[in-house]
Design goal:
about 55% helix, Multidrug-efflux Transporter Regulator, Chain: A, Domain 2, alpha/beta, two-stranded antiparallel ribbon, Rossmann fold, elongated
Length: about 290
C-alpha cells in the first residue's frame, strides 16, 4: 500500500461513519477522491478523511447531504462544530452498522450533555434526512431503516414520559389510518412539549372516530394530523373536516398542502418538526 494512503475501512474508523455511507457519498457527491492500485483497489488520503469530517460537521449543523458535501468538496471551512457533533457522528455510525450498544451509549451521552431540542436538531433530524436520501436511491437497506427508526423512536418516546402534565395548552397528535410513520410526529411532540404544551399522543394509524371522541372529551387547543403522503389524509377527508368544525386542526408533514388543508377546514404546518413546533407556539390559544 502506498505510504500515507488508507483503505476505506480505515477512513470509516477514523471518521466514525460506516463504509456504506462513505461509498454512497463518493458515488453520489464525489466527496472522496481515491487513487487506484495496479490491482484496482481504492486507496484514500488524509484529505479524504478531512472532507468526510467536514461533511459530518455540516450535517450536524442541519444542512442536507448534498449541501454538506458541496461545501466539503469546495474546502469551505465547516461552521464551528456544534457541541454534540462528535457524539452525533458516533450515533450515526452505530445506527448504520446495527451496533445497538454503541448507539445507546452515544444517545445517552447526547442526552446527558445537551438539551432535548439540541439533540433533535443536531443529531436525530440530520440522520433521518440523510437516511431518507439514501433510502430514496437504494443506498440504505430495509434493515437499516427499521433498525434506526425503531431505536430512535424508543429512545425519544422514553423522553416523552409525562409530556401531558402541566398547565399549558393541550395538543393531540396522531397519524391518520394508513400512515405508519410517526417518528417525525414524536420529534414534533417533544419540541412542542419544550414550549410548554401538554401532549396527548396517539401515533400511527389512528381512526378518525377515535380521534374525534378523544377530542370531544379532552377539548384540546390543537389537533395535529401528520402524514408523509396525501392519500391517508384524502381517505378520511370528510372525518377531518367534521373534526375541524369543532376543533383547531392542523395538517403536518409532506402529505399536506394548502389546498388540502383549506378543503378540510384545517391549517397547514409547512416546515419541519422543530419549525412547526415554533409555529404552533405562536398560534392563538383558545380558552
Amino acid at each position: 500500500m502506498a505510504e500515507g494512503l488508507l483503505r476505506i475501512g480505515e477512513v470509516a474508523r477514523r471518521a466514525g461513519v460506516s463504509t456504506a455511507a462513505l461509498r454512497a457519498w463518493e458515488r453520489r457527491y464525489g466527496l472522496l477522491e481515491p487513487t487506484r492500485t495496479e490491482a484496482g483497489y481504492r486507496l484514500y488520503s488524509a484529505a479524504d478523511v478531512a472532507r468526510v469530517q467536514s461533511m459530518q460537521a455540516h450535517l450536524a449543523d442541519g444542512l442536507s447531504a448534498a449541501e454538506a458535501a458541496g461545501l466539503a468538496r469546495m474546502g469551505a471551512s465547516a461552521p464551528s462544530p456544534p457541541g454534540p457533533a462528535e457524539h452525533a457522528a458516533e450515533l450515526w455510525a452505530s445506527l448504520d452498522t446495527f451496533d445497538d450498544a454503541r448507539a445507546q451509549l452515544a444517545f445517552d451521552r447526547l442526552i446527558g450533555e445537551f438539551s432535548v431540542e439540541t439533540v433533535l436538531r443536531e443529531a436525530v433530524l440530520p440522520y433521518l434526512r440523510m437516511l431518507g436520501e439514501r433510502w430514496s436511491v437504494g443506498d440504505a437497506s430495509v434493515a437499516q431503516e427499521h433498525f434506526a427508526s425503531t431505536l430512535l423512536r424508543e429512545r425519544l418516546l422514553a423522553l416523552a414520559r409525562g409530556w401531558d402534565g402541566g398547565i399549558g395548552p393541550r395538543a393531540i397528535l396522531a397519524c391518520p389510518p394508513g400512515e405508519r410513520h410517526d417518528l417525525g410526529l414524536v420529534v414534533f411532540g417533544l419540541a412542542l412539549r419544550g414550549r410548554g404544551w401538554r401532549v396527548t399522543f396517539f401515533g400511527a394509524e389512528t381512526p378518525i372516530d377515535t380521534l374525534a371522541a378523544a377530542s370531544a372529551r379532552l377539548q384540546p387547543h390543537a389537533v395535529v394530523l401528520a402524514a408523509i403522503a396525501s392519500e391517508p389524509l384524502d381517505a378520511v377527508a370528510d372525518g377531518i373536516a367534521a373534526l375541524a368544525r369543532d376543533h383547531s386542526v392542523f395538517l403536518a408533514a409532506g402529505g399536506a398542502d394548502e389546498e388540502l388543508a383549506s378543503r378540510m377546514g384545517a391549517r397547514l404546518l409547512q416546515a419541519g418538526p422543530l419549525e412547526a413546533a415554533a409555529e404552533m407556539g405562536d398560534q392563538p390559544r383558545r380558552a
